[in-house]
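Example: histidine kinase.
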Amino acid sequence: MSTGQILFIIVDSFPTPFWLTWWFQLIVLLAIAIALYFFHRSKVKAVEHRAGDLERQLLETRELLSYAKQNEQSSRDLAALESRNKSQLLSKISHDIRTPMTTMMGMAALLNETQLNNEQREYTNTILDSGENLLKLINDILINDILEYSRFESGKELEQKDFDLRNTIEEVLDVFASKSAKQNIDLVYDIPANVPTQVVGDAMRLHQIFTNLVKNSIRFTLNGEIFIGARFIESGDDNRVKLEFEIRDTGMGMTREKVAQLSKGFAEPVSALNTNGISSGVGLIICKNLVSLMGGSIQVSSKEHEGSTFTFTIWLRTSLQQVRSKSIGMTGMESKKILIVDDNETVCNLLTKQLQQWKLSATGVGSGKEALALLSRDSDYDLVITDMQMPAMTGVELTKAIKSLHSDMPVILLNKFDDESYKKHLGLFSSVIKKPIRQHILNEQILVALRNKNKASEQNSKQKLSVDFAKENPLKILIAEDDAMNQKMVIKVLNKLGYEPKMTSNGNEVLEEVSFNDYDIILMDVQMPEMDGLEATKMIRLCLSVQPTIIAMTANTLQGDRDACIRAGMDDYISKPVKLEDLVNVLEKWSLHAQQKNG
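Written out as structure tokens, the predicted fold is:
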């Protein structure tokens, strides 16, 4: 046996190491597989745990977001409720005060129409004057409350409601009528024919912008005028229109440095606006905020001692709602010659332009002397409209001179708000219109004066209440009024005018009555039980084939109340306490409207 064979035998006789055996290697492989399994399992569990944590966090975030949204909505709902409650409170205060005052002042006015001795007439006039003073106080308190409240509301979302742009501007000017009269400031406005007046937007916010800017102008204007102008800029999608407004005054103006500072403030964030003594600043900050909210911008231009002009743009939408116009057409009056006398060139030009739009032939002059010279050369004028406060010759003096030349010439007097001196010469005038001038009042008084040219002097010498009135203005009248004392007062007034009206107490009774009988005019209270006047008006406009004239006769006189009545389908608006001359004028106005329509 060889040596190699021996060695092989020796080696082969030793056992194989266990780590090289198949069963050990199998165990190792199984151990590795088990380890990999548990490692993978731990990783999966870790991922699942992490996913669970993320899902819980997501759910918590969603819950927090939902809770935040609920809180935000709850806050909005609470703010809206507070807003409605405040508005309703102011409306209720106004309504509850004005309703009994209607009876009190109405009865006093009726008493004043009877045969009284001098002492009794003095007492009744005192009652009426005190009532008027109380109304002014109420208006001032309510208006101030509304403005103060709207300042706190300036950051809220905008409303989108139909409103009358002309009426909004006229309401703003009415707010400052008394103060401007004391400062001998004329308040005038102009809305060109291409500017839509029935629009959709936030009327209260726009009212607030105008109010703050006019208030700012009055603060720095000692005399002259404050003018509000409107201009159409462009149209966009969804009936959107961009309008520009300017508030121009003849006040003390500002230096270049102050204009630059204020202009810079208007271009910066709201919080940066600082007027540095130009005004209180709060009103202008609110204006900038609201104009920005309406998608526009605001600028200022001014020259020292020459006045200031604030210009702002906003976006509104033209209304698709058909609105019943308060102005009467001038059918049959085309080319009637009107002479306008006013030393304020702006007012004279605007009145001339307005009358020409109504297809009347209007001529304007700046003084009583010019008017008399023109009338002496051309006596073919049908009506004179004159301002009361003019240098050299007042409206009363001019009217007396006109009457000495043309005794039958009707004259309409334009008079500042608080001036009662004309009452000593009331028989001279066809009517007296208080400034600032409302377009529909000017419209109706011109028509009345022209139609009654030959009777003006005779009518002015009569009592306000005469049974002949119903003969000249035949109307079938329905009254909707729930207050018993007001029912009694209105019935008595209409009886003295020669009417026999039908009385109802709520909207349901009105609908039942108009279902069986036709009426020319409905004097509609707004707040009534069962169905209010607004809802009753909407039902009448939807259901009746022959439509009556509906006149709101209401104690609701806050901002927006007039627009709400017009939106509901009413034709006109008389605020309580109802003045006899207002009721007579509105009945005569719509009687003429009916005669035009039928004739």
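Residues 197 and 384 are 29 Å apart (CA to CA).
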